[in-house]
């Protein structure tokens, strides 16, 4: 009975070790690529939204150019909306990148975020895709 338990435990340990060692750098890169692709899609969507918001803002600013109060409200709302869009993008990208980095770590590789500036409207946000560090 004891020998059988040791054999079963040894086989289980072998399978666990083999599954950990079975990941390649390409597997880890695939996880990073999928995460980065998702982040790029989010960036493109946010840029398109910011472009539409900016066009509408400019049209409305032209309409309200004679009213300083209306212009200031319009500008405040535009800036707030762009800020919400950008921070939402940054938070979502961070969550995606963090999850991918954790997955890559379980595969036995190291990945880190690197920041790229993304301009939305009149504001710049730092978005964090990931890169594999091949030690």
Write down the domain tally. Answer: 1
Radius of gyration: 24 Å
String of helices and strands:
HHHEEEE
What portion of the residues fall into strands of 2 or more residues? 5-15%
β-strand number: 4
Shape: rod-shaped
Q: Please tell me the overall pLDDT.
A: 86
Structural category is alpha+beta
Q: Strand sequence of the main sheet, in spatial order?
A: 1-4
- Which range best describes the helical content: under 10%, 10-25%, 25-40%, 40-55%, 55-70% or over 70%? over 70%
Give the count of helical stretches: 3
**How far apart, in Å, are the first and last alpha carbons?**
44 Å
Keywords: Signal
What are the defining features of this structure?
3 helices; 135 residues; two-stranded antiparallel sheet; 4 strands; alpha+beta; signal; 73% helix
Task: Write the topology of this structure.
Layout: H1 2-21, H2 25-63, H3 68-106, E1 110-113, E2 116-120, E3 123-127, E4 130-133
Antiparallel strand pairs: 1-4, 2-3
Helix pairs in contact: 2-3
Provide an overview of this structure:
This protein has 3 helices and 4 strands. With 135 residues, the chain is α+β, with helices and mostly antiparallel strands. It has one domain (25-133). The longest helix has 39 residues, at 25-63. The radius of gyration is 24 Å and the shape is rod-shaped.
Concise structural overview:
The protein has 135 residues and is of the alpha+beta class. Helix content is 73%, strand content 13%.
